[in-house]
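Subject: Sanity check before I submit

Could someone independently write out the structure tokens for this chain? I want to compare against mine line by line before I put it in a report. The sequence has 341 residues.
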Amino acid sequence: MQYRAPHWLAGHGALAGNVQTIWPALYSKAHVDHGHVPVAYRRERWDTPDGDFIDVDFLAASKVPEEADAAAKPRVQLVLFHGLEGSSQSHYARAFAHWAHALGWDYVVPHFRGCSGELNRAPRTYHSGDHEEIDWILRRLSLAHVGPTVVVGVSLGGNALLRWAQEADGEAVQVVKALAAISAPLDLAAAGHALGRGFNRQIYTRMFLNTMKPKALAKLQQYPGLANEAALRAARDLYEYDNVFTAPLHGFASTEDYWARCSSKPGLKAMRDVPVLVLNARNDPFVPASSLPGRDEVGPAVTLWQPHEGGHVGFPAGRFPGHVADLPHAVGHWLKQQLPA
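---
Independent answer below. Compare away.
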């Protein structure tokens, strides 16, 4: 991916990375022609194997002209796993929705637990290595769909998706034809410590905790004694939050144990079956460039895109105020190339 930021958002160093992250999320259009209009999905509620539920949003394919006389032709299904505290209406999810719909692909956004607007029921939430959750979701979607399935994971969802492919190993290619991870924190410790410092701590960490802590406290109302309420309220960064809530809730001994066991970077070397795209901007404020893998650290199935600009799930383009349609176009084109002719 040869990405260059538009001149009105160009720059160098940390400032450019932050601007290219924040501006697209708040002000850029999801599509050149659609602005900030929410996508009209069809929602299904699925019961989970452990007695909980998730909400899954669907956008059926449009009939593009070349398919008008081939209604029975198997269609591609694009599944997107959102990032931390994201949803099907996140700017990047809407951008992929417009791209998939225009191409004639079915589009699906499963919500991680608690991210669809309603608190989930079980004494758990979601986390960066939630590969078992992704496994049953993808297998169910793949079985119900006639045609190939390709998958995109964004930020936390990208790391969790990579962990799924690593755990599934040779079975992954039986479920999906290709997958892409965008701005994934491949080394969770590096990303976690980066988010705990300076500007990142004051802006991004506060933003995440402003929604995560109320949900966690509501979870304690459901299950009194599930976590240390005083320590949860006192948490000021993701390290402290994960140590008191995410890690113990999901079977990890500590933040260090959680970050080490759920980081996808160590497993990239063994990936050699399903085609994988890993896209990270080198000025991403969440993911230090020094933590990104080199070509010798990934397997033959992995393609690395590491442009110098783009921010965290940013990659804005076009004239002011810009749009983020180039991101799904580039990633989607790569996914399309991995499909049988």
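---
OP: Matches mine. For the report I'm noting this point. The domain at 7-187+265-337 is CATH 3.40.50.1820 (Rossmann fold).
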